[in-house]
Structure formats: structure tokens, C-alpha cells
Amino acid sequence: MDRVLSAAPAAAAVDVVQRGGGSAPPPSPLSARAVGAPGALSLSPADFRTLAKLIHDEAGIVLGAQKQDMVLRRLSRRMHSLGLRSFREYAKRLQVDDGGEREHFRNALTTNLTAFFRESHHFDRLNALFAQRGPTRRLRVWSAACSTGEEPYSIAICACEHYGGGTPPVQILATDVDTQVLATARAGVYPLERLKGISEPRRRAYFDRGTGPNEGLARVREPLRRIVQWQPQNLMAADYAVEGGLDAIFLRNVLIYFDRPTQRTILARMRRLLRPDGWLFVGHSENLFHCADLFRSLGQTVYAPLPP
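-> C-alpha cells emitted (308 positions)
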């Protein structure tokens, strides 16, 4: 029988936005009421371009004109809570902010789409890496854009299963630029529908199912949560608070949101942080052809660093 889940915060809702390709027509001013946000704010093309530049400078995210309605929707509620009447006022506030409001800004505009054991072939490859390292060597794995935590918890489950216990010789660091999703990840509480990709034996082994007021929720059990260390990290920061010598880095479905120069800067840093025999995992729609001097392909969107 599943253990009873005591009162705990539910997982935060994830606002999923798919980034489309191709060109888009020039944006026109949009009203917040037109997309269901409170009040009557409007976002002009000029103000959108200012905000798009700010989020690119802050987090490396590239927003095309087709994302104007998303920006309007995600920022309107915050602006109302601040008592601001225009996006121009908000942009000026961000430009002089010492960091607090910029955190809200980043949290609002980052996209968090993830799942347990997403791109399952990567976890087969991770098990192969564990086997390659042997039963006693301690490994270090970084989930570099962990979102609400499904990826690092999937890595932790793989480690427990491979090494046959709740204290595998694997240290997992999980980071994200969005502090709100990090709080959700640290709590480890998810709606049951988010566990659909997990087999029933794994659910029983690694999750407590909620009852009463927590019906419909499940929480990652404490031994699994202890394996993962959480911290905020902006991949655009000048320095990473991450120690080198990593055995694996999961940087999946992140590079697609950056332009090529930013991708190259980030990948060069990742190469320096990996062991010479370490592996980099990227998303199925991503490739490193433009950084062939930094990494070589091992197949299935897994890459090995090349010597400097």
C-alpha cells in the first residue's frame, strides 16, 4: 500500500509555450484583456522589443515577434500587482533594478516543459555510463535546466536502480534560472497525471501517494530527494557556481531558446566543466554541428568533449 502523503505544497502549474519556427508578421499593440489578463494594459511593438532585449541580455532567451501575446499575458498580472500602468514603466524599472524584480521577470518569461524519463533512450545511455565507471567510483551529474525537477529525479531513480540501493555513489546537482520552478522541484510534489511515464513498480518504490486533502498528488520519497542538490543558476552568468570534473551534463531542450553565439558560449563552458571522458546530453531537436570543434557525437544526441 502506498504511504500517506502528509500536507505539502502542490506542484506549480507549468505554463507551456511552444516556440514556433519561421518568420512572423510585425506585432501590433495587444490588449491584456484580449488574452484574458486582468486590466487594460497594452503592449506596443517598441515596448515588446525593449523587453525582448532585456530577457535576451538577462537569460539569453530569444523572443520573436510571434511571442508578443505571451509576454503580454505573462507580465500583465505582475504589473498590476506593482501598480504600473504601462510596459514602458516596467521596462524602466527593470533597467534600474538591483535584481529582485529581474528575478520575477525571468521567472515569468522562462518556459518549463518537462516530464519524467523524457527521451527515455538517454537514461539507457546513462546506465551505460554508470556501468562504464564501475561500482565504486563516485559520479557527478548536473541537470543544468532542471525545471520542476522531473529530470534530476529520473536521474536519481536510474542511479538507485543501477547501484541497488537508496544511497548510490552519484551526486546530482540540479539548477534552473527560474526560482519558482526550483521551489516546486525541491518540494517534489506532483499531480498523479505527471507520473504517467513512470511504471507502477517505480511509483511504489519512489513516491508516496496523497490521501484526503492531498488526493491526486504524489511526493518523491525523502531518500530520493536527498540525492539531489538544488541551486539557482543562470546559464548567462559570467561564472557558474558549479565545480568541474563532471561525469555528465544534461542540457536538454535548452539550446533551442538561445541564438548561435550564445549557444557556443554556453557549450564552451560545458566542455570545461566535463571530465575528458564525460558526456553531454542535449535534446532530440538539438545538434552541435556548429560546435564540432568543441564536441563529437556519440549518437542519440549524446556528445563527448574534444580536447581544447
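The longest strand covers residues 274-282.
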